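During the first year of the project, the team set up a workflow for recording each protein of interest as an amino acid sequence followed immediately by a discrete structure-token representation. This format lets reviewers and collaborators read both layers of information side by side without switching files. As required by the reporting guidelines, we include two representative entries from the current panel. The first entry is reproduced here exactly as it appears in our internal archive.
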Amino acid sequence: MIPVLTTPRLVLRGFEARDWDAFAELNADPAVRRWLGGTVLSREQTWSQMETILGQWALRGYGLFAAEHDGRFLGRVGVLHPADRTEPELAWIIAEPFWGNGFATEAAAAVRDWAFASFARERLVSYIMPENSRSRRVAEKLGAVREGRIILRGFESDVWVHLRPGLGVAV
């Protein structure tokens, strides 16, 4: 069962077939995909991505939410944890028309708080390309601390650490 999270402006819920068109549009936008390796995705690849997102919920009990504002699909935000990663990632992607409105910060804060309340994890990480100043600002607003830099799937990424409240400062 995928929970529904709400914030003052957003609903975060499981993906549904009705999200396909808007999610495909987001995945076809080079400005958005620049921060995800640069490759735009087709409609069919987007459908497969939705299947993977839903599968992670079944396998791990957490995953990515579809984010919406006033009934409009904004993007995806949640806890991404592919098999090749040792730590779960607090991840967000918002469609370009909605950039600059604080939606990513609001959604990611809600997911972070839910994840720490629901699972015995001491930390989440966010992998952000160094040039992605918008996502870096989101991580900073969330109180994350830059831990270092890695190569992730062929791309240089900064590792931002979100600690469970009460654990102190990441080093």
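The second entry, processed by the same pipeline in the following quarter, appears below.
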Amino acid sequence: MCPKSTNLRIRPAAREDIAAIVNCATTSTREEEDVGFGRPWAELTFTDTGRLSAAWKDPNRVEDEEIYVAEMDGRVVGYVTMQNRAKELELVRINVAGGYQKQGIGRRLVRTVEERARHDGKTAVTLGTSRNAAGVPWKSFPWWQSLGYRVTGEEENAWTRSIGKGVREIRMRKDLP
């Protein structure tokens, strides 16, 4: 599906985008929906302007993640972060603001990461999503599959242990031509 506006543009994030990025993070899903799949929002950098501002490194980095935003009609409506992993580019997080979902914005953000990976000579884009302790995958799992990402394994790691006992990370990959 194409965005309703033809004015969608993907660009590197800027410090001035911090409040809008936090809005995307906090409106893309409800906090109670995330229980059992992710860490509590009070512990997340991207759900608080103070934490995100403190972690920001100009021009568009938080820790070792590079941030791009989706801007529609001058308003930031989504973002994606990526991390260099040798021969691969890791898509770390992606969020589209509530009210802007199901318009193709997330798909365009993913395509931007894939194009960046190709440009940088990477062989694949990788990512992780979660499966809760009851064995249910996070709601985006079928979407990732529809974009051509395949499961390469599941694991318990420091991130899943921070969420809770029995949570697993589903590792996914898309090889690039």
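For the second entry, the following points were noted during internal review. The longest helix spans residues 105-119. The helical segments are 18-27, 31-34, 49-55, 105-119, 141-146, 158-163. Both points are flagged for discussion at the upcoming steering committee meeting.
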